[in-house]
Amino acid sequence: MTPGPHEPEGLEKDGLRRFATIWSRAVYPVTQTSMTRAELEDYLHPLAVKLCDAIHEHPFSAAPGREVGVALVEGHCTSPDALPHLLGVIDAYLVLYGRDPANKNLSVEEARARCSRLQHTIAAGFTQALRDRTLGEQEALSRAALAAQTAVEEALHASETRFRAVFNDATIGISIADMDGRIRDANETVARMFGRSVEEMRRRNVNEWVHPDDAPEVWKQHRQLVRGERDHFRVEKPYQRPDGTVLWTNLTVSLLRDPEGEPRYQLALLEDITERRLLHLRLRYEATHDELTGLPNRTLFAERLDRLLSASGGVKRFGLCYLDIDGFKAVNDSLGHAVGDQLLVAVAERLQSCTAGSGHLVARIGGDEFAALVTDPSGPEDVAELARQVLAALATPIGIDGRELSVRASIGIVEGPSGELRPEEVMRSADITMYRAKDAGGNRYELADPDSDARAIDRHSLTNHLPAALERDEFFLEYQPLIRMSDGHVDGAEALVRWKHPVHGRLGPDRFIPLAEHTGLIVPLGRWVMEQAVRQACAWHEQRDAEKVKGAAAEAPLRVNVNLSPRQLHHPDLVPDTVAVLEAAGMAPSSLCLEVTESALIGADEDELKPLRQLAELGVEIALDDFGTGYSNLANLRRLPATTLKLDRSFTRGLQQHPADPVDVTFVEGIVTLAHALGLAVTVEGVETEHQASQLREMGCDTAQGWYYARPGPASTFQHGFAVTP
Ligand code: C2E
Ligand code: MG
Ligand code: MG
Known about the structure:
Elements: H1 10-27, H2 37-56, H3 63-74, H4 82-97, H5 108-169, E1 173-178, E2 183-186, H6 188-194, H7 198-202, H8 217-226, E3 232-240, E4 246-257, E5 263-272, H9 274-288, H10 298-309, E6 317-325, H11 328-335, H12 337-355, E7 361-366, E8 369-375, H13 380-395, E9 398-400, E10 403-405, E11 409-417, H14 423-439, E12 444-447, H15 450-471, E13 475-484, E14 490-501, E15 505-507, H16 509-519, H17 522-550, E16 559-564, H18 566-569, H19 574-585, E17 592-597, H20 598-601, H21 606-618, E18 621-627, H22 634-637, E19 644-647, H23 649-653, H24 662-677, E20 681-684, H25 690-698, E21 703-704
Parallel strand pairs: 11-12, 14-16, 16-17, 17-18, 18-19, 19-20, 20-21
Antiparallel strand pairs: 1-2, 1-5, 3-4, 4-5, 6-8, 6-11, 7-8, 9-10, 13-14, 13-21, 14-15
Bound molecules: ligand C2E and magnesium ion (2 copies).
């Protein structure tokens, strides 16, 4: 490879360099060398020198040609086209550029002959070297292949070992079965779970493991897997153990296919969930049963009702007895919770005894409420019969702590076809009907009927819409004059609230005041009424002053009466709110009269009367409304801060007839005398006839209110004077 001893000089040296250039240009495109072309030229130049030396050597030897051939292969001039190019260039240019002018003995013909012999040896060396190299490469390849195979085998072995380790030590049960279900392998865990040995497991077939509690889809999915239609499925599945206990598992079965995609094995992974399931069942039991009585609770009851009512439940009709113990609160309050609890337990037992063996569900819905759910009754009478039995069973006294308690209850019955009502509708209807039984005196059952339901539901929807109604300004006031009996002039007016309901039209206070009282909305509503009424009273005052100036008959009311309901009475802001309203309007307290029902004050202690007393001290008038309808305690009158008694309409009614009811006459006379003795004025309500009016005036009543004078109407009625004949 290194240049020979012949050091070319001068022209020869330049010639060989040019040869190397030509040679490299011709060869470069067909080599696989990583050298640049310039580098290749440098690489070829010594070879050219060697060949040139060989031509001029004496005696001639073609052997260096072989070395050059080998060198060319080592220089990666090895593509199939390389050799002809290599030789072609030597043939055409070597003699031309490699001639040694000093060697006069060598003719051109001789030089050519030597050159072609060199070409032969170059070719031979080249071919030999190429073959050697290919063989070497092949050998390296097969060595590498061999090494790779060993590595693969080792890896396979390692993964097989790993798999075995996983298989054997897994805390999850693993078993592999063929497509006929024969178990080929099972790990220790699965054997332990099944209470068998691995060998025993290997003798089993998965198709034997049918359990009565299997979910219906288990075996369907398994068949699909075996047919290759699905690749895995996951279910909760029970297995019978040899000792009779049941193993519950989370089972995942996967299909293993061969390289052609044909199903080969079924791989089952089993997780033991027996404990978890027991815990779940216990929690579920606790979540669905009442601790005290052991009966199903509201949750379970709701689930059953849901199922019974769904059209798909396969049941034609349903029946529900909704029961509430009458006066249970009194038992609890007077005898204590322990006795109350024992009573509930006893009631639960009685209820169960009535339904034993019938398949009906008895549940404790909460507090002292129970329910019995009847599946597929033949009609309402069936359910009513159960209600009668229940009431009879409860009527037999229950002995608790040496006391004999007899239990009364109110039952609401709903019965009907499945698939029509929603559970909440049924429950609402049952609740409404139960309250109807209670209102009718209790210790009875009532059957649900759509009309009473509608009325109650109406009440329900009114209640829901009350708050928005106040915001939307749907309330308005009417005023009814209070007439001074001595001269027939208007003394004051009572403000009466109405609701302009967007759907139901005009609603009277009896429809919504009790609801507002119940929900607490009466407080803001009452404040609104007071503001409006006081503002109206101010307007009337101004009107009066103006009329006085004009010398007209002044008939605008001097005072406005505002009704207060019990809840307002006990609201801490009553006094400050009232004062604020009066101050805002700039009105004297004596121009406001607050009407309070007598019943709201019964049993009120001094603390509870304090706000009213404060208002009275400020100068606000206080009237006792509907007097005579409650448990009137005349002795009580003395300590109340009232200034007026408003005698209820029920007394004046007796005076309408001819001759007047003597009892009512006596009563009214007595009240008037007593009231006057206590310094109270008397107003009579419900004066509808002239006869009543004159009688009441004779009896000494101070003020009167009623249709005879005027029905409640808009404030403007008073604007143009109010002509009343006494
Ligand atoms: P109340 O305070 O006893 O009001 C008198 C009721 O008797 C009014 O009924 C009035 O329209 C009616 N009335 C007046 N004269 C006659 C008559 O000659 N014959 C008959 N048969 N009835 C007559 P209304 O307006 O339906 O009010 C009913 C009750 O609603 C009131 O009874 C009052 O307790 C309550 N109420 C009215 N407005 C309010 C209010 O703003 N707040 C509160 N808390 N309750 C109110
Ligand atoms: Mg009133
Ligand atoms: Mg009244």
